[in-house]
Amino acid sequence: MTEQTSTSSTPRRIVVAGGGPAAHRFADAMHARGLEGWQVTVLTEEAHLPYDRVALSKALTDSTVDLTLGTASMWDHESLTLQTGERVVNIDTAAKSVETAAGNTYEYDELVVATGSDAARLPLPGAERVHVYRTLEDVWAINQSIAELTEKLGRKVNAVTIGGGLLGLESAAGTEQLGATPVVINGAPWLMNTQLDEGAGQALGRLIEAKGFEVHGGVFPSEIQADDDGQVTGVLMADGRTIPADIVIVAIGVKPRDELFRAAEGEESLFDLGPRGGVVINDYCATQVPGIWAIGEVANFEGMCLGLVAPANTMAEIVADRLHGGDATFPGFDTATKLKLSGVDVASFGDAFARTEHALEIVYADPARGVYQKIVTTDDAKTLLGGIFVGDASPYMSLRPLLGRELPAEPGAFLSAAGGGEAPETELPDDAILCSCNNVTAGTIRDAVNACGACDGNAPVQELGELKGCTRAGTSCGSCVPMLKKLLETELTKSGVEVSKALCEHIELSRQELFDAIRVLELTSFEEIMAKYGTGAGCDICKPTIGNILASQNSAYVLDAGRGTLQDTNDRALANMQKDGTYSVVPRIAGGEITPKKLGVIAAVAEKYNLYTKITGGQRIDMFGARLEQLPEIWKELVDAGFESGQAYGKSLRTVKSCVGSTWCRFGVQDSVAMAIQLELRYRGLRSPHKLKMGVSGCARECAEARGKDVGVIATADGWNLYVGGNGGATPAHAQLLAKDLDDETLIKYIDRYFMYYIRTADRLQRTARWQEELDGGIKHVEDVVVHDTLGIAEDLEAAMAKHVDTYIDEWADTLKDPERLRRFRSFVNAPDQKDDSITFVPDERGQMRPATAEEKGKVLIGASIPVRPSSPELLDTNEV
What we know:
27% of the residues lie in helices and 20% in strands. It is of the alpha/beta class. The strands form eleven sheets. A five-stranded parallel beta sheet has the order 3-2-1-7-19, with helices on one face. Helix 17 links the parallel strand 32 and strand 33. The longest helix has 18 residues. The N terminus and C terminus are likely disordered.
């Protein structure tokens, strides 16, 4: 068996058969350890980049969601190749090569088989008419079928899922979100019988039936019935009943795709196979044939093949480690499971069924509430062996890392549903697994926070997002993020870094606390606020923050009543300062729609003032090179022509990008332009902790890139889908689905609530993506507050937004009305007519102006202080280029 790092001048060839999560993790692990001396080729039969199968339920309800694992740029490495559409069909162990269905041959020095598994199917009459739940194509087909059947039948579709395990319940929940009536058929007497005991399974059944699911347990299907046209009509059960069905999905588990290891008929295989499939591996993931490894669901270890992401990731890391000369071994399967199903928490881990000799079961059950909590310990009630939680899984995160260890308190103290409150404080040992998906220990987290070599450069990590990127913890299912955040704060405190929520050294309150105090007490000035909550004269953190809070609570002119001194440079000038000291001018072009007449005005202004012009990514026109004293002159011409400030300088709404929509586009299903304009005019001038961007797409083709915005709206045939928390920048994030198929009124109501809740609770300069990520409960919490009004504040949030809309004023139009306000737009306070001669320009190669470099400023042909272009040529200033 080869177990050494490649050092030869000729790269050693690694071929990976399969392109799922395990294959991706192996390629990523090789990439992280260094690819020098290696050539890795990944062969995947699918047309996609490797994607996250754990999140398939997202693709079921939203066919536009991107589940791609990692970054596509990883595959740009010269030593790492991904070949899509290549299914490996044969291994020639003698020639050390593999053959694909396309007839191509790939030679290898090391072969890693990560073919995964197939969806198990039922040998029933009519089974050819069912759907399975395994790939993107599978869930897209289910989505399309439900949509087509709903339109065809003119009623809710009866969506029957056969299988009451993890996959089955995820499938059923997805069909419910698609508007179908979810029906679950389970051969076992209770749901999730592999992970839950009877008490827990019955509690789960009670909870999801209360959510509108129909559950049939303890009986098996015997036939899929259909009409003469082949349309499914029902499922005939073994007891003679027929359950009405319009679509049937089979999600009863998976079977290893081990055909590469099976010998032809009459021949003997070189590989050992498990009794229920899968190629047998040893504790470092090697098969019986030297140079051939197996990872993921196709690998059988100690008689088991499991379709869980955590062991697959661990296997991938082990093989990468071995190929680089390490000695890592596979510790066995971690069967812990955590699921949030239609708002119902379910968790199971360790010896959940108390099979260990003399094990104790400490149980709290409340059938009426649908709550079941069980902790399994050794017979002395000290060492944790496992647990099950249904309805309230809050203790899971504290207990999961303590598996096999002595509990820090009596077991009953962890049964929160029994009145024990929150789980007792726990100091996790360094070797305790905090993130089971990526096998990240508490010690690794501590090393990262304390700069002990966990990350490149040995730089300490003090931000949650940075910690996740450095250690991979919390980047898969995300269930460990609350514990991760808690450990980060604990370690920072230990190392002397105060984990303070204070806004700055002058104000001890957090931004959220300060916002609420200003709102409740109706404070209106910096002096009032500092007298009550601050010390000193303030700083460049608290001053603009207070200015922003005051502006977000009332629409008074932002530079009046002493508020001008609070603002950042850009806000004080109502324009963005550029690197040469000039400013940009950005008029609002709502939704990107503009008339030819208004285009002519912009062209005339840009030519008159010799401004560089650029169409921005937000579908408006930016004009650069205006001196401070020119801003009022320029804006007067724009305001007179009907333009208003685009607020490109503020922590506020920037743009609402839109596609052309149904008015012109043959694919459009809604008028995205009209909606974008309506949203931009509603939220213009809205001050917030960070800049805001929106997008509206007229169909699922998503031309407006709405899911890259803080709020994205995508049209469907049934209304609007609302996405929240997206952004570009250095750490881009896709927006997440908040609600779907909304009418115009409901859409705007939810956006009102979302924006106001964000403005009130986010930290200073915190984008919506990071805010959502750090909320306890994430997008589910946002949904609870915005859609379900669980905090009872929806009416207040809507009223606050209505006040903003009713009192909005255009800052530049207001500025031009008041001579005193115009006095601040001078380059030199003591010499109002003097121009700043240090501002110079040169022509660029594309026929426009640009700032002169330091070297160019020393030359002769430099345009200094570009003046207004007069109407008569003979009046041209001699300084003009």
